[in-house]
Structures are given as C-alpha cells and as structure tokens.
Design brief:
By secondary structure, the chain is mainly alpha-helical. The protein is 48% helix and 4% strand. The longest helix is centred in the middle third of the chain and has 12 residues.
Length: 90
C-alpha cells in the first residue's frame, strides 16, 4: 500500500525503473539468458526496503520477464518483440 501511495500503482513503481519502456534483449541462444540482472538486483533491493519479503534478484528477474518489462525471448523465437512487430506489418 505504501508503494501505491508513493507511485500511484505497483505497475508505475516497476515501470519507472526502465523509464516505462521494455527492455528487449537479443539473445542468440537460451544459454545466454541470465538468471538475474543489475535491474533485478535494484528492484529487489527497493522492494525489500519497502518491506516486501522473499523477492531476491532471481525471483524478481523472473517476474520482470513474466510481466513484459524484460523480453528475453531468443531472436529466432516467434514471441520475441521484434518478430511480433515484423509479423504485424506484413
């Protein structure tokens, strides 16, 4: 509730870390995809400062992927953001 009060929504809190623009990575293989990132470390620390528990950087990174802030689909995947944009234009 404190996060909502400060940022108007939990969504705003999360998206403000990336200036409200998704991070679109261009991995060649799934072995390149990290388990955590500097962003997930930062978000995790901020959540912990605000009293949220059990949100380490690996869990936070997975959450950021799941909600679309981080696109870690490999470049050849149909679900990669850039492939979806190309498909929409054709």
């Amino acid at each position: 509730m404190r996060i909502q009060k400060e940022f108007k929504s939990f969504s705003n809190f999360l998206w403000h870390f990336v200036d409200f623009k998704p991070i679109i990575n261009n991995w060649e293989t799934d072995i390149q995809i990290p388990a955590q990132s500097p962003l997930s470390v930062q978000v995790s620390k901020e959540l912990k400062k605000r009293g949220v528990k059990f949100v380490g950087p690996v869990t936070t990174y997975s959450f950021l992927q799941a909600i679309g802030i981080v696109d870690d689909h490999i470049k050849s995947c149909d679900h990669h953001t850039l492939n979806q944009i190309i498909r929409e234009k054709t």
